[in-house]
Every structure is written in structure tokens, then in C-alpha cells.
Amino acid sequence: VDKERFYKQIDFLLELDKLKTIQRRSYLTNGNRRENSAEHSWHLAVMALLLSEYSNFPIDIIKVLKMVLIHDIVEIDAGDTYCYDNIGNSFKDVREKRAANRIFGMLPLDQAEEFRSLWEEFEAGETPESKFAAVLDRLMPLLHNYHTQGRSWKEHGVTKSQVFERNSHVVEGSLVLGEYIQNIIEDAAARGYLSETDR
Amino acid sequence: VDKERFYKQIDFLLELDKLKTIQRRSYLTNGNRRENSAEHSWHLAVMALLLSEYSNFPIDIIKVLKMVLIHDIVEIDAGDTYCYDNIGNSFKDVREKRAANRIFGMLPLDQAEEFRSLWEEFEAGETPESKFAAVLDRLMPLLHNYHTQGRSWKEHGVTKSQVFERNSHVVEGSLVLGEYIQNIIEDAAARGYLSETDR
Fold it and tell me: Chain B contact for A106, CB < 8 A?
């Protein structure tokens, strides 16, 4: 056993514990607390297993699993940037790239490169796998918001047109899930979970 | 789209949110709170990606991923049974089988059968994949305990010989990780994180 390699892997795995302390904006469906990015990543992985039949394209499921499992690791340093926070998002790229360098850089070179490239592929959203992973990453928070009567939308004054725009690309990954997402947004607005008027 | 199938999948995914509220005995390495079973499952999945090279046998990594992602879902109904709780463990099988029937039974039949059979394979621990998944499921809580000065061991008066026995099968899945686990236990006992004396 290459001990240096092994201890790099263990140190990285211990570092990952921090993702369990990164709070997202969405609340659990029981409304008791915000979701953290580690449990969110788990939820997307199980979704990937169950919903892959709705991808527009044939996908390599292991690649989708890897992507959703690691897509938020950079938040350990960069924090969770709320998708409707324009200022935060303008600096997001720089912060997340620096985070990727440090955190993935803890791994042995081959694994660092694999994770880094999976993360970049996910961020770019140009391949069938990354498009499908993005759909999952949109759908689950939408369901969380819907099942908490739009709690996090209301807290941040999010409007229907913002949510539509945020979800405008999901049809590229899955027509079926894209249509479902559209129906949820319409229904959420009709129920008053989402504001109809732009500020 | 088969709507009945689709809504079964979505209802199951919403049900999974409850796993985020199931508390395990181990504390996060920062010691702030106990870990929940959803984030634990995520952690094992990333471990599987990084440590598969230490399996004694060639393994189908997708199968290992599926197993660790779903291995604790039954806890939604059955709760987390502490591995050193003899009374709790004597009823664990019955409780968990009932839970598996209800929860996996929410899925469309083909997916219910797949998840059920993966969970049974994990529980039986007889295949290369389930043996390796079991190693991961032992190693991570050990690291959590070690990095919190044996906090959860101390709270429950767990002894070195109990931890050795609990981990006696890990070498079947991975000699490398089995040896590492043995060293951690010795070191933890030497540091007083684990009691040397049986009660």
C-alpha cells in the first residue's frame, strides 16, 4: 500500500464532513430546519437511480452518480450561493474555482483530476450526464419549496418569472421532468406560494 | 409517460426526506451534533468511489454505490439501532423487514424489487460488493469516534473488545482497510478513547 496515497484519501474523506454543515436555503419537507448540502447530494443520487428513464438521452448512470455526489463539495470553502442572489453569483465562479483547487487538490493526482473534471463537466452542463444531473438539482429544491408552501421563496421574495427562468434549461435534460417542473411552478403560483408580480 | 409509475417514484423520493431526520450515535468530527443517516449514506458513497482499489475482490462499483445509498432507508420506520445495543438488535430484523416492505413497496414493482434485493444483499454480506460496502459502513463511524476523542463510545461505555468484535469481519472485504481499522482501535484504546476493561 502506498501510504502517502492512502492518507491523502482519508484526509479528504474527513474534510468532507464539513459539507454536512453547509446550509442550503431550502427547508426539509417537514419544515423543521434547512437542508444541508451533504444530505441534498445523497437525495440527488437516489433520484438519479430512480428517474434516469426520463433522461432525453442515453446516459452513463455512474457518471451522473459521481457528478451529483461531488457537485457541491466546493461549497465547503465557497459556501452555498443562493441561486436568486445576483451579487453572490457574480463572484461564485472565482470562489468555487479556488475551492476546487484546494479541496480536490487534497486527493492523489489521478483522483483529484477525475473529481475536478467531473465537477467542471457538471458546471458546464453541456453533456447528456451533466444536463440530466442539472435537472435533478433543480427538481428537488422545487419539491422542497412546494411542500413547505414556498417557505424559502417567500423569505427571499422570489417571483414566478424568476423560478421559470432558473428552470428554463431543464427541458434540455428531460422533457418529462421539465414539463412536471413547469406544472409545479404554475401550481405553486396559483396557490400563492410564489409571487406573480416582479418587484 | 406512465403517470401512476411517475407519481410513485416522486412520492418515494419525498418520503426519503425523513432519513435526514434519523439521528445516528456518531458525532460529526467538529463535535457540534450527531450525524444523520442521509448524510452518512452520502459520505459512504464518496468513500466507495475513492477507496474501491482496496477491495479484496473485483467489485461492481455501481452496485456498491446503490447499496450504500439505500442501506439505511429502512431506518425511516425502524430507527437507527445502535450497533452495541443488544436488546435493540434482537428486534432489529423484524422491524427493518417490516420497514422495507412498506417503504420499498411505495415504488413501482421493478424498482421496489431492485432496491429490496440490494438491501437484502447488503444485509446478508455474502457478496464481494456487500462485504466491501460493510467495510465502509464500519470505517466511517470509527473515524468519527476517533476524531471526537471517542465521544459516542464513552457515552455508551463501549469497550475495546466490543469494537474489535464489531469490526472482526472487515478483513473479508478489505485487508488494507481491515488493518487500518485495527490500528485505529489500538490507538484509540491507547489514548483512552475506548475503555480497555469489559464491564
Answer: no
